[in-house]
Amino acid sequence: MSGIRPRWFYGWWVVLTCALGLLLGPIPIVVFSFGVFLKPLAREFHAGRGAVSLALTFTTLALGVGVTLAGRLIDRYGARRVILSANVLVGLILVAAWFCSGRIWHLYLFYLSLGSVGAGLAPVSYCCVVSHWFDQHRGLALGLMLAGLGTGAIVMPSAAQFLIGRIGWRLTYLVAGAVVLAVTVPILGRFLVEKPESMGLWPDGIPPARWASGRPAAHSETSLETGRGMRGTEASRDPAFWVILCAVVLVSAGVQACLVHVAAIFADAGASAGTAALATSLFGAGLLVGRTGSGYLLDRFFAPRVAALIFACTGAGIGLLGIAASQLLAFAAAFFIGIGNGAEVDIMAYLISRYFGLRSFGTIYGFVFGAFGLAGGLGVYVMGASFDATGSYRLMLLVFCLTALLGAVLMLLLGPYRYRAAPVQESGAALDAVAT
Description:
Elements: H1 10-23, H2 26-32, H3 34-45, H4 49-77, H5 79-95, H6 104-118, H7 123-133, H8 138-191, H9 232-236, H10 239-268, H11 273-298, H12 303-323, H13 327-356, H14 361-390, H15 394-411, H16 429-434
Helix pairs in contact: 1-7, 1-8, 2-8, 3-4, 3-8, 4-5, 4-6, 4-14, 5-6, 5-7, 5-8, 7-8, 7-13, 8-11, 8-13, 10-11, 10-12, 10-13, 10-14, 10-15, 11-13, 12-13, 12-15, 13-14
């Protein structure tokens, strides 16, 4: 393929392929759709909703822990191998739902297995691939790719609800597994190329002759210098690593808590079921805007300032949700919180690539993403426990508002990039970005 001159830079096909992988991955199919499976599972296993919900807890914990191992496997064996292997296993596990009996521990084992194997299909794997294909346009590419996850959050629950009502929860999971095996795996196997140099291409489709200096900029992370960057142990000793991790954890706890409880917050305020559903949809719309918008901004402005602005808006949205006196303000709050939820994963990937390079990207991002997931799970629990104790969400909404604002302040402590994008000549650079 390296001898063929494509009309469009192949990296954008990689972005589309990765977006499809996220759309048809275990997070939309299992995590985002769990709510519509809750009642059928409770009836099937003769268990309360709390006991059934514990299954999803096993999934999220396995994802949070497993993604750190997945990051190490990516750095050692390559993202393509991890992604394809994990997709095959996830597809088989989904098909195996047909064999779940009425024993609750079978359900727990099923969801635990999905979380453990599905960790290889978390955004970490796909972000690693896209980060190798793009340098100048890395933020936009990551944002567009991660929009696949946001689309899955909107599409998959409705699709699952439609199928469950007609064929039941077991066959719904079987169909999902068949789609993964028959559609996702072949498409990824055909179009997913891990690094541009394997096709004789360069990041962004810009060859060295177009770089302003005729060579990579100092400390740039390009496919010419795949060995450049910090190891995981080096990054863990760098203050920037802990600043990024702490900021992400502080914001994630509140955002994920609001994502789960937003419908209940509106319902408790006297809103109808339709209004509560609209609030959830606005959250999803904000997520898509956050994914694509943050990616565009990250390529054009200093990323920590972009992150600080988005985290501050997120904090303001959480606080507004706690004190909103009208539905219009509450809707605006849900939208702004959704933007924060959409931007977080993109921001994490971009910052890690610029401050620690791509040498151990999977390991470093896997650790931060694992902390991100665990913090979100803890935030959901604390929000619910606080409501049980006080009868109101207001206290934790104000607390999470402050933690998000603190996360924004932490972003401003980050210094210059260590691995900045290579400068290019203005003339023809834009054309080379899409046609090589």
